[in-house]
Specification:
The chain has 271 residues and is mainly α. It is built from twelve helices and no strands.
């Protein structure tokens, strides 16, 4: 197992995909949170809110949590590439020849994804905090609010994005075609799930379902500071999942993807 994990790290750092995606992620989050912070800061300053500290304590975590609300596709794709790159470049054949136990190879990929996901989570959360803080200051908010709850939310965001990287590994096992998995992730995270979360929350009978969607579970694990969580709370979705429940649900998605992918795809011939 140790040799398999070391091999996964060598494969990961021998490619350019991870740092290209990381640069795009950091740059995108900086611009996104910078703009969001400036708009919110400008509106609060021009409105002359007397309860500025209270309002900031609500909006700061939302801005800082934009990474987990809108950008979890980056860790998912990075995790999926750990599997799909092998099939795309046909290195999966020598990989399985070197380690015939395919379960060992896939478990090694999942284990290796943990520190990778942690670093991605740190980069994403750090860029959101940096961009959001600068945006608020440029918008006219001279003194930001820093509390233990905001710090805890940042740590939870890192944890959630780490789990998303492991989900990406499971999804890569399920959809081994690299283009197919990227298109699927983009379509689901940026279009299908947001529509489902908003649409299902419109009815009392379907609203409770929304909290079990992967993005909603991720928001719960990240502290519930997502803009989607605020919309759902204001609507009819009912009580949100706790952080622990969100983590369990999110991990379950990754486990199901991995098990189904291993049983029906990885165990088959790679030809």
């Amino acid at each position: 197992m140790r040799a398999a994990i070391i091999s996964e790290y060598r494969k990961f750092f021998s490619t350019r995909a991870w740092w290209i995606l990381s640069i795009l992620m950091v740059g995108g989050f900086l611009l996104l949170t910078l703009g969001a912070g400036w708009v919110i800061g400008w509106q609060l300053r021009t409105a002359g809110r007397a309860d500025l500290v209270e309002v900031l304590s609500m909006w700061q975590p939302v801005i800082f949590g934009l990474g987990i609300a809108m950008g979890y596709l980056f860790p998912v794709i990075i995790g999926a590439l750990a599997v799909t790159s092998e099939y795309r470049h046909n290195t999966v054949v020598p990989t399985f020849l070197g380690e015939p136990r395919r379960s060992v190879v896939m478990v090694a990929k999942a284990i290796a994804a943990v520190p990778m996901g942690f670093v991605v989570g740190l980069l994403a959360t750090g860029s959101c905090i940096a961009g959001g803080s600068l945006g608020l200051k440029l918008g006219g908010i001279p003194q930001l609010v820093w509390t233990s709850q905001i710090a805890l939310g940042a740590l939870q965001s890192v944890l959630a994005l780490t789990v998303w990287t492991m989900i990406g590994v499971g999804l890569g096992m399920l959809i081994t075609n690299q283009v197919g998995v990227i298109v699927t992730v983009l379509a689901f995270t940026q279009l299908i799930e947001p529509i489902l979360r908003i649409g299902l929350s419109m009815s009392r009978s379907t609203a409770p379902i929304t909290k079990y969607l992967p993005g909603a579970a991720s928001d719960a694990l990240g502290g519930g500071h997502s803009i989607f969580s605020i919309i759902a709370t204001a609507g009819r979705s009912g009580q949100a999942l706790t952080s622990l429940q969100g983590g369990v649900v999110l991990a379950a998605y990754g486990l199901v993807f991995a098990l189904v992918g291993y049983l029906f795809r990885i165990r088959r011939s790679v030809a």
